[in-house]
Design a protein that fits this description.
This protein is mainly alpha-helical. The chain has a single domain (9-204, 221-414), classed as MFS general substrate transporter like domains (Growth Hormone, Chain: A, Up-down Bundle), CATH 1.20.1250. Helix content is 78%, strand content 0%. α3 (47-74) packs parallel to α5. The chain starts with 8 loop residues before the first helix and ends with a helix. This is Permease. InterPro entries: MFS, MFS_dom, MFS_trans_sf. Pfam families: MFS_1 (PF07690). Residues 1-410 form the Major facilitator superfamily (MFS) profile domain.
Length: 417
Amino acid sequence: MEKYSRKSFKYIFGMNSIYLGNNYLWISFESLFLPFLIARMVAQNAQSLYLGIIAFAGIIIGISFNVFAGITTDSLETRFGRRRPFIMLGSAITLASLIYFIIFHSSIISILIVYILIEIGSNMAYGSYLPLVRDIIPDYQRGTSSGISGFFTLIGTALGFGISGLLLGYNKLNLALMAIILSLFITTLFTVNTIRNEDYRSNADKIFFHFSKLFKKIANQQKFKWMSISNFFIIIGSSGLTFFEFYYFEYILNIKNSAIYVAIAGLIILTVSAISAVLIGFISDKIGKDFFIFILPVIGGISVLMIIFVRSFYLFLIIGSVLGITFGNYFSMSNSYISYVVPRGSAGRFMSLFSFSTGIGEAFSPMVYGFILFIFGGQKLIAYVRLFEISSLFYFIGAIIIFFKVVNLKPELIKNN
């Protein structure tokens, strides 16, 4: 098949399906399984601290495998393709870890070990399938692809909140884990089967990897460099919030059986967000991505500040929906945006390094927020006020960097970006 030939909607749909399985997995552990199990083993005032440390350990180790997979699959040649072997290997490690977790989850140490293994496997797969948009999808369809990946990201997150939250609310942890195993297995098969005829060496120029040459390239790629820095601040401002939603509902909104309400909120907020993802993806193909890349984190920062004044679950749903729309679309669109500025043939290397900035932010975010909550008294209102203030600050720093260093918002140039 011709390189960068136009892809059918079915093809783009199948290629991106693995986003659903992995995000179903990630949000279930971040928002539900980890806080739920830690709350059963640790004193109330130290729960956030333990949660932040475990999250940091798992994510920081996992992202190294993300970068390794992206770099390795750029130059990998096998009978099974370039990206597919690491997608399958990473998913296999994750599935085996989940099966182990069904049997062993009764101590902090076992939780830590399994979470690290899950992060290793899922990040290995993620670092391999992230460059597919540059490998296979033509320029004029990448916005559509980012919209569909965003759709799957949000639907997977909604399933994590919804199904895992509902089952956990009824103390069906093992059943929730089996649902994730089934989802990840099916979506991985969809992705590797869809790309089987195009995941080969001729889809990219062969470039031998040297760290010195790579960092020299990065120094010359100003948009890539500044976008990665801004992305770090936006991710550190946003991703850690989901880890503490369970505790926020239980201790600040005084909601009993918080897992059920996390499920309700997740389904409502992320269904709205998923619908917006495809629409914004199509619009961005028409008017350009620069406007959205800047405005989405601005709206996100404002939304986080507004949560400070929330005392009602229903008001939380409204503000949370806006926050979900902004972050979900920023996350998927930023990957597509980066695919336009990285050198051809080095998509895996550059996009893995961009993903590394995401991973570093994701690792530090829960640890920072865990320490903030611990320092300001644990599960108290003032602690969460400080948390939301700092979160919005990170959002705004990222948006400012994007405005001055990354995007060009001159009206006559928007359509060309």
